[in-house]
Structures are given as C-alpha cells and as structure tokens.
Amino acid sequence: MRNLIPSWVRVPVVFFIIFGLVEYFANSGRQPAFIEYPMVLLFLVFVLFLLIAIEAIVNALENILYQSLDEKGKARFDAKETKTPKFITWIKSLYEKSLGQKPIKEEHEIILDHNYDGIRELDNDLPPWWLYAFYASIVFAVVYLVRFEVFNGENQYDELETEYAEAKIAIEEYKKTAKDLVDFNTVELLTSASDLSNGKAIYEANCVACHMADGGGGIGPNLTDEYWILGGDIKGIFKTVSEGGRNGKGMIAWKQSLKPSEIAQVSSYLLQFKGTTPAKPKEAEGEIWKE
Ligand code: HEC
C-alpha cells in the first residue's frame, strides 16, 4: 500500500483532511481559521512535517528490511508486488481489512463452544470500519459538546443574526451606489454639498419658471413658508415632484424627465428655502405643515 499512492499525494491528502477539520471546528469568523489564528497555522505546519518525517522513516526502514532479505526473499517480495495491478490489490485488501473478518479457513479459531440445535456462533471482532467510525463519532461529539456547550459557539440563530446584519450593511452599501432606487417611502434628506449643488442646477433648469429662483412662488406655490398643500417633509415633497400636484393645477409629474436620484436632490435643495425671505413672496397656500 505504501508505494501505491505516492507520498506526494498521500501526505497532502491527509494534511487537507486535518486542515478541513480544523477549519470546520475552529473557524469562527469570515476568514479561514488558519489566517485568523496563527497558532492553527503553526499546528498545521507541524502536522505536515510530522507526516513527512513518518513517511521518510518508514520508507527508510522498509529499504533496510528489503536489503536484508536474501535473493529468494527479494524475488518473492518483488513477485508479490507486481502480480495483479497494485491498485486493485490495494482496494481489495483495504476492503477485506475494513470488514475484519477471519478467512473461512480460520473460522474454527473463533467459533464459540455452545451449540444451539446445531446453530453455532462466530466470535468475530467488530468490523474496523464500524469501530473507527464509532470512535470518530465519539471524538466528534466531544469536540461538538465543548465547542457549542462550553464555549458557546455560534448556533444557527446567531449565524442567522450575523448574516442578517451583514445583509443589511450590504443593502446600505448597495443603496449608496444605486441612488435611483429611492422612492417617496425610502427617500432621505440629502445634505452633501454635491447633492445640493446638483439639486440647485436641476431646480434652476426646471422649476424657477413657476416657483422662482428664491422659492418665492409664482404660478406654483411659495416654497419658503411653513404652509404646504401636499406635504412639507422630504418624503411628501419627493412624492409631489415625482407624481405631480393635484390634477389641473399645473405641476406635472417630474418622474417622466427626472431620475429618482435627481428628484431626491432637487427636493432636498428646495427644502433649504424654508424660513428664508424671498423677494416677492406669494401668499401662503395650504396648511401649516407638522411632522
Ligand atoms: C409649470 C409650472 C411649474 C413648474 C415648472 C414646477 N412646478 Fe412645482 N408646482 C406648481 C404648481 C401649480 C403647484 C401646486 C400643485 C397643487 O396645488 O396641487 C406646484 C407644487 C409644487 C410643490 C408642492 C408645494 C406644496 O405646497 O405642497 C413642490 C414641492 C413643487 N411644486 C416642486 C417643484 C419642483 C422641484 C419643480 C422642478 C423640478 C417644480 N415644482 C416645477 C407648478 C410648477
């Protein structure tokens, strides 16, 4: 079996199995455990060197043993090694070993004394595959218990919560890049200088004809006073600009020509008129706006 799978395959495979187990049980955050905890990396490197060392020693011993055989022994050894394809013998022997059964010829060694009407019992060992799986499950249970019951590892609810929080942050991030996703439900007052200067440009290009450059009003109502016909907070204003005013009053739905982000900008800009004194204020319309 030694020479069937070369060590350069075998060692990394074992190494990655151990790595995977460590990663699974020790990983608590977003990074792989071996980056997060240098000790884990050290441990893995140690295991790797250990495997290589064992490998080298075993090979050396085998060589010494082979050299010590006489010609006949060497010939027999070589013959045995080359008869059937090695891979197949290996799988076969692995399978047989994993069953742990005595060959039929040797069954007399393990047959029990008693005889129930001719039915007799073999005292077979537990099959190794079963036994080792059982041991592995015990180890797993201990690690599991310690991790989740003693050290209070993340359970599904915690994981859900972290993922929820992460998703929320991701949505916020996305919204920053996708400004046009806003509508009157989600819009928030923009305060950055660039948004406001964009808003000013949009206002001057589209709105001054009816609302005046200082918001004093003309065809459209005065935007500087506390009186609003259709709602005086950012959400209400966004809605008015986007969907238009009451039918037949002359304020069109600007969503035809402005992007949602632009509506948010111009709405934020015109809220700055609040409390200023325009040159020719139009008389108040609507009602005093209360939040
Ligand atoms: C053609 C003239 C006209 C233009 C151009 C115009 N508006 Fe208006 N606006 C009006 C009229 C008229 C009303 C009143 C609507 C009503 O009574 O329902 C109004 C109402 C409003 C209101 C609601 C005021 C309140 O008291 O509730 C806001 C906010 C507003 N306009 C913003 C804008 C913005 C921003 C622009 C430019 C993108 C703009 N308007 C362009 C005529 C105009």
Automatic annotation (TrEMBL):
Xref: InterPro entries: CcoP_N (IPR032858), CcoP_N_sf (IPR038414), Cyt_c-like_dom (IPR009056), Cyt_c-like_dom_sf (IPR036909), Cytochrome_c_Oxidase_Subunit (IPR050597)
TM regions (residue ranges): 6-26, 38-61, 129-146
SUPFAM superfamilies listed in its UniProt record: Cytochrome c
Organism: Xanthomarina spongicola
MF (Gene Ontology): electron transfer activity; heme binding; metal ion binding
Gene3D superfamilies xref list: 6.10.280.130, Cytochrome c-like domain
Stretches of the chain forming a coiled coil according to its record: 150-177
Domain Cytochrome c: start-end pairs: 194-274
Keyword annotations: Coiled coil, Heme, Iron, Membrane, Metal-binding, Transmembrane, Transmembrane helix
Name under which the protein is recorded: Cytochrome c oxidase cbb3-type subunit 3
Highest taxon above the source species: Bacteria
